[in-house]
TrEMBL record:
Residues 26-242, 304-399 form the Aminotransferase class V domain. The keyword Transferase applies. Keywords: Aminotransferase, Pyridoxal phosphate, Transferase. It comes from Thermohalobaculum xanthum. This is Aminotransferase class V-fold PLP-dependent enzyme. It comes from the Bacteria. Coiled coil: none annotated. Gene3D superfamilies: Aspartate Aminotransferase, domain 1 (3.90.1150.10), Type I PLP-dependent aspartate aminotransferase-like (Major domain) (3.40.640.10). GO terms for molecular function: transaminase activity. InterPro entries: Aminotrans_V_dom, PyrdxlP-dep_Trfase, PyrdxlP-dep_Trfase_major, PyrdxlP-dep_Trfase_small. SUPFAM superfamilies: PLP-dependent transferases.
Length: 411
């Protein structure tokens, strides 16, 4: 198996040559990744050369529109969906809120939605609010000991009135990778629409949405080495039957109808940089050049293999301690490289104690209050979370373990 060339990868990220960040190990990637050079360059280029209204008949505007169009085309190809099925909005939270509002207009009182208590609130709260408008909200609950979301527990929640099933590809706390294809197949067979929150999975390799069978898949590009945008893939037949959420005269424009806020032209133009980075990694590691979806799949597998190697020593160290609770599975193959632990000290206190060791980590509830509570943890106490990506160095994991060993042993 091809092994990721870490030196090449880190050379693609300006943060690793930034003097202000020298000596710091970044373990807050689940909150937002470093941007790739290809993204930064496109954003800078756009602002410097064609920061004008796009799609007008003069050169700077035509180039601006072409850069935006390239992002739709390149991201769609990597995700293995049609170009007109990709929508860019200001954030995943905003995109989900708009979706919930749009679906409510096509639902009748008494219709049902299924949400989980494993989700980040972005993919749960907007659907739960529909209960105030006459929609029945059913909760698919995690195991309170492990945080596991059992697909079999979904079956009794489905009925002929179920319209939406919203669930995460991976939790931002327990990090278990859910069997998305299996769940989406079950949801489609029931006649409902699957809404998959990929925010905590996509940073670890862009998903093949067609292979997953997801009707709607959402993630945040600022966690996939890009600018602060929300990416939403919606099957065209579903988007066509949803009402227009934008200005009335945009109803016939598929890129606009589900994005009521005006698009951020520069950030959309920069999004193609994610695809350029993915291609750079692919071409450095492979001699041939298949289609975009296959290139993305290969890079996805490279990233996942590297991240599992990084996760194993941290998990092994934590398992050997008797004063912490590791949340989620301890098999690196079953989880994303986002490791949250419960300890007698509050999560934010632990994160603060790691900072003098030049470890950048986070503590709190991470907008997963329902999950934290389901696991029997006080959200105000919170958890410590260390999250990394394929660009994390093994030496940085070793440093994190050494710093944890000192911090966790302090009274």
């Amino acid at each position: 198996m091809t092994t990721l060339d870490l030196d090449f990868v880190r050379a693609q990220f300006p943060a690793f040559t930034e003097p202000a960040l020298a000596g710091w190990a970044f373990f807050e990637n689940a909150g937002g990744s470093y941007p790739a050079r290809q993204v930064v360059d496109r954003l800078s280029y756009f602002y410097g050369r064609c920061k004008v209204q796009p799609y007008a008949p003069y050169p700077a505007s035509e180039e601006a529109g072409a850069m935006m169009d390239e992002s739709y085309a390149r991201i769609a190809a990597m995700l293995n969906v049609a170009e007109d099925e990709v929508h860019f909005g200001p954030s995943t939270s905003q995109n989900t809120y708009v979706l919930a509002h749009a679906f409510r207009a096509r639902m009748a009182d008494g219709d049902e939605v299924v949400v989980t208590n494993q989700d980040h609130e972005a993919n749960s709260g907007a659907w739960r609010r529909l209960a105030d408008t006459g929609i029945v909200v059913r909760e698919w609950k995690v195991d309170p000991e492990t945080g596991h979301l059992n697909p079999d527990d979904l079956d009794p929640l489905l009925s002929d009135k179920t319209r939406i099933v919203a669930f995460p590809h991976a939790s931002n706390i327990v990090a278990e990778i859910n069997p998305v294809a299996q769940i989406c197949k079950k949801v489609r067979q029931s006649g409902a629409v699957s809404v998959v929150d990929g925010v905590s999975y996509a940073p670890h390799g862009l998903p093949d949405i067609a292979a997953l069978g997801a009707d709607i898949y959402l993630f945040s590009s600022y966690k996939t080495y890009g600018p602060h945008q929300g990416v939403m893939a919606v099957r065209r037949e579903i988007a066509d039957r949803l009402p227009n959420e934008s200005h009335w005269f945009n109803a016939a424009h598929i890129r606009k109808k589900l994005v009521p806020a005006g698009p951020d032209h520069a950030q959309i133009a920069a999004l193609a940089g994610i695809a350029h980075y993915t291609d750079a990694v692919h071409d450095h590691h492979f001699a041939d050049r298949p289609g975009a979806a296959e290139r993305a799949r290969r890079v996805h597998d490279l990233f996942r293999a590297q991240e599992q190697r990084l996760t194993a020593p941290l998990i092994d160290y934590l398992k050997a301690r008797n004063d912490v609770r590791v949340l989620g599975p301890t098999d690196p193959a079953r989880r994303a490289p986002t490791v949250a632990i419960a300890h007698a000290r509050p999560g934010e206190d632990l994160a603060r104690a790691l900072a003098p060791h030049r470890i950048m980590a986070g503590g709190g509830d991470f907008y997963a209050v329902r999950l934290i509570e389901a696991l029997g943890i006080d959200p105000d106490h919170g958890v410590l979370r260390l999250s990394f990506l394929h660009y994390t160095a093994p030496s940085e994991v070793e440093r994190a373990i050494a710093a944890l060993d000192r911090v966790l042993s302090e009274t």
